[in-house]
Amino acid sequence: MNKSNIIKILILLLAIGLNVKTIQSIHKEQAETNTDRALVSKMPMASFHKFWADVKWMLYIQYMGSIDLTTEKNSKDLFEEAKSILDLDPGFYKVYEISALMLSAKTPNYAVELLEKGQNTQENKDDWRLYQLAGNIRHQETFFNKKANRLEKIKDAIGYYRQALTKPGVMPVLEKTYIKIKAQEKYEQDKNINLLVAELQEWEKYINEKALSPEYGMEGEGDMMLSVDEDTKGNILSLIQRIKREVPEDLTGKGTSQKLLKSIFRDIKTCGTCYVKYEAGEKFCTNCSNPVKTYGTCPNAQCGKVHRGGKFCQHCGKTVKVAKPKRKR
């Protein structure tokens, strides 16, 4: 071997060594900026991981449509196939969602395991849908799995819903689901409590102690009751009305109802008999026909028409006393 060939071989070996060092350095930097990189399959796949994940996903969809998922073996095969796609692309959201839905009926543990895998990825860790879906799957087990420990599954579902509520962009409707299952937990622990009353108590607790706490990713100051949105108020008022109709003698329900009516509904006029909301100028409740305290009308007895605001009545011109806003303490 002549001298020039030896030099070429040495240069080649040096280049390979430098290339390996460079690749190791790049992978280290990638791992620091994207933790999902450590979850990717060790097989290089020509560095086209996501491309191969897409190919496997198309084959996976066809496979799902061709098998019977009521058998344990097929469910396990589907679970393993889903994991093989996620080994190539850990951030592939649709794999988590669709696979969990397909697996939830027969093998809910596989479904939840996949969702937890997604929750631990950098790309999906803040996606509230993965947490909500895990909660839904655990919750449905309380209805369809007679062998399941009902209270244990309820607690699991509560944990996932609680995590979902801390994530950005979460749908407000999830609060209602969370409150209902919290009430179910209380009912499972004490069968003597009325389920409607338990739900109202959970709403009160959620509003006063948790709705503005960092635990739910929100911060606030001043009067917490003013932060309650209209949909939530509607849910709570409907619950108060049901308690009044169905369990009027329940002292706990009555007391909790009164506290909430004096706080979040203090600016809303409700019938003292059935708690249905009434409007300015109305003298009788449209729901139960009982008389209500009229408000929002002109003080002139000969006028008495509904006043829309301002210092003077728009109907008769009489001066109307305008209430001064209360100072915050």
Description of the structure:
The chain is mostly helical and 329 residues long. It has a domain of 124 residues: Serine Threonine Protein Phosphatase 5, Tetratricopeptide repeat (Alpha Horseshoe), CATH 1.25.40.10. The chain has eleven helices and no strands. Helix 4 runs antiparallel to helix 5. The N and C termini lie far apart (94 Å).
Layout: helices, strands, pairs:
Elements: H1 3-33, H2 49-64, H3 72-88, H4 93-103, H5 108-119, H6 128-144, H7 150-164, H8 173-189, H9 195-210, H10 230-246, H11 251-263
Helix pairs in contact: 2-3, 3-4, 4-5, 4-6, 5-6, 6-7, 7-8, 8-9, 9-10, 9-11, 10-11
Write a brief caption for the model.
Helix 6 packs antiparallel against helix 7 and helix 9 runs parallel beside helix 11. The protein has 11 helices and no strands.
Question: Keyphrases for this structure?
Answer:
mainly alpha, Serine Threonine Protein Phosphatase 5, Tetratricopeptide repeat
Can you identify the CATH class of the domain at 48-171?
Answer: Mainly Alpha
Please count the beta strands (DSSP E, at least 2 residues each): 0
Q: What's the pLDDT, averaged over the residues?
A: 82
> Structural class from helices and strands?
mainly alpha
Question: What is the gyration radius calculated from CA atoms?
Answer: 31 Å
Shape: elongated
Helical content (DSSP H or I, runs of 4+): 55-70%
The main β sheet shows up as: none
- The appropriate CATH architecture of the domain at 48-171 is Alpha Horseshoe
Topology pattern, helix = H, strand = E = HHHHHHHHHHH
SS element count, helices: 11
CATH superfamily of the domain at 48-171: Tetratricopeptide repeat domain
Strand content: under 5%
Parts with pLDDT < 50 across at least 5 consecutive residues:
215-226
CATH topology of the domain at 48-171: Serine Threonine Protein Phosphatase 5, Tetratricopeptide repeat
Distance between the termini: 94 Å
